[in-house]
Amino acid sequence: MTHPPQPGTNPYAQPGQPGPYGQPEQPGPYGQQPPQGQGPQQWAAPPAPPARRGGMGVLKILKIIGVVAVLIAVGVGYFLSQDDADHAKAGDCLKNNGTQISPDLQVVECGGASAEYKVVQVHQDTLDTAKCQDVSDIGYQEQTSGGRRSSGKKFVLCIDKIKK
């Protein structure tokens, strides 16, 4: 790496000639003299950095991939939650993916072998299963908490067991 000349020294000045600060110049390091007819060496500007191509950076590509992955996950979650009990309507059939103590009802096709119950009535914004008395076999109530797979509402389904 080269350094610019220090004040008061000019390695290419003729001995005895005034330097840039009015002092007589001494011969340069190692007694170097510039070739006759040439003046002081000019310093060149450093080379310009290479021009960037118009392509996208890796970080930008990773951000785009991340956004697309999140959108896909939200879409899949929404699609999977569409067959939960909180979307059931009168006439829909259900199957229980849980237990009798902790049911997890899911809407299924009525002609399928997995159909266990048929929805007779739906009552929104209530947890009163007495509304199903004399209407259906079972009054199923649920209050969703607005979490990952639920919409955050309360309802009662009046359902009949499908006889097979």
Protein architecture, described:
- The chain is 15% helix and 18% strand.
- A hairpin with an 8-residue loop joins β1 and β2 (105-108).
- It has one helix at 58-81; strands at 93-96, 105-108, 117-124, 138-143, 154-161.
- The model has no long low-confidence stretch (mean pLDDT 75).
Would you kindly provide a brief summary of this structure?
This protein has 164 residues and is of the alpha+beta class. Helices cover 15% and strands 18% of the residues.
Q: Summarize the amount of helix as a percent range.
A: 10-25%
Helix and strand content put the structural class at alpha+beta
Q: What average pLDDT do the residues reach?
A: 75
Uncertain residue segments: none
Strand content: 15-25%
Radius of gyration: 42 Å
How would a crystallographer describe the biggest sheet? 5 strands, antiparallel
Spatial strand sequence of the major β-sheet: 2-1-3-5-4
What is the end-to-end distance? 91 Å
Shape: rod-shaped
What pattern of helices and strands is seen along the backbone?
HEEEEE
Helix count from the secondary structure assignment? 1
User: Total number of β-strand segments?
Assistant: 5
